[in-house]
Amino acid sequence: MKSKKLIGLGFGFILFFMFPFIAAGQEKVDLKMMTGPAGGSWIPLGGAIAELIQKNIPGTTVSVSPGGGIANVVGVEEGKADIGFGNSSSSVDGVAGRAPFKAPTKNVMQLANLYPQYFQMVVLEDSGIKSPADLKGKGICPGPKGHTGELLAQQVIQIYGLSYFLIRI
User: Fold this and answer.
1) Largest CA distance in the chain
2) What is the pTM of this model?
3) 29 three-state secondary structure
4) How many whole angstroms separate alpha carbon 31 and alpha carbon 18?
């Protein structure tokens, strides 16, 4: 039930910010929305939000495309998308111009928080790994390069004094 309230709140924010388009009498609005990678939860969530927008704002179409937390911030900044899902940390890093962003993003703002998102590290029970420090000398699978999960894995590894490097196969 809580997630429905959060999605409703997010949708409310989107409607609020789209109101000037509707009030100006613009008949047709085409929005581009970037969500997440294939198989993730952001694609169906983006599809549901797009459907709500199209159903409730006549003349509005929303095209949904895959992306990722960091890529979506860049996409909105560069005008490739009007709306993009992002992790709060990625959005803030973009606005501040911190890595992996090369410069502060000027066209990006956090519109709504849809749900809390946690960074998790999962290991096999019999691996003997009890903390990130125990990953020394081990290989990890942090997720796709350039996505928020990969950046957060790199930051956690570095906090524990371990080196992080990518091996491409």
Assistant:
1) 63
2) 0.74
3) strand
4) 10
